[in-house]
Design goal:
Blueprint: E1 17-20, H1 23-29, H2 38-45, E2 47-50, H3 61-66, E3 72-77, E4 81-88, E5 94-97, E6 111-119, E7 124-125, H4 126-130, E8 140-142, H5 148-181, H6 187-197, H7 201-210, E9 226-229, E10 247-250, H8 252-259, E11 263-265, E12 271-273, H9 280-284, H10 298-310, H11 316-320, H12 327-345
Parallel strand pairs: 1-3
Antiparallel strand pairs: 1-8, 2-6, 3-4, 4-6, 4-7, 5-6, 9-10, 11-12
Helix pairs in contact: 6-7, 10-12
Length: 346
Amino acid sequence: MTGSHTDVLLAIPERMWFANTDMQSFYEFTRAPSDNSAFAHWVAAGRLFVTPNSGNPRKYHNALVAMMPGDPVFAYEDRVGFVGIGWVRSPKDLRDSRGGTALYPNPAEIVRSLAVDWDPSVTRTVGEVSAFTRVGGHGLQACNEGTSLHSYLIGMLQEAHERRQGDSEGEEATTLARIEADTTADSRTKSQLIQARLGQGKFRKDVLAREQACRLTGTTQPRCLVASHIKPWAVCADGEHLDEANGLMLAPHVDHLFDTGQISFEDDGQLVIAPAFDRAVLRAWQLDEGANVGPFAPDQAHYLAYHRRYVLGQPRPRRQRNLVGDVSADASNFDATLQRNHDSQD
């Protein structure tokens, strides 16, 4: 998205999960004196851990299978409270820890784990939680809609959503300041980059010449269209920020869904919806879930491939910093592969 971000209501996810950090199991086998928090290990590893006992090795299996990319997970530590919120990473990554791998301290125990992007900035103490609801049980379980705990967790999720909105605005200001301070670019280039970031100037004009309507709504009024980057601005390489092939003209609500990774498109134009996205939002906005918006040109498909892999279904803080999958090296390799494929078609 090239314009300024606006506040939007949080779409309530279809599934939310409660995970106890299993301190007793962690402490029983950890050796390092500094390992005083199981959740700190979870955050550092980028994973959620469950420890089925030998008598029930498939414990939590159904929950782990049911968890989908983008589902929020609330980590709870006994006698501490909620210590963070995470989102199941896409693509889903379920592993067993065997033979004393770095995944878990105990070399004798098989631990199941799932890749999760954790945000430890939104927390609640035991006292804060107990004043409104009761947290019972251990391990991993779904948070059922209609319960007081579910309603309480929605409030935490809203706070995390608002924090991410604030982070985006801060990153926007930082990006503009970095462009202005760049000593390698001349004033004209800086002006073009800043105007493109603000949704004006050359980038918008070039994209509009190529895409005269919102692909999903058919809206053709320029004042009602946003010039949206397919590959996010924050991870664009030199030459990609102003490349008209890296842009779509979208209605503002469609731009929001595309920019936040709730939807994407196949090369042939088929709409793709993130697994965790509440499709009731599409119905409320009268957007066809089965829409095909028409094929994209090969140079646009280059960027859409990136969007499907690194933006669709991804939590915003991670994908904006190009930390999806195996950090930026994976993204660079992906871009190089796309370029080779593109060159071979020329």
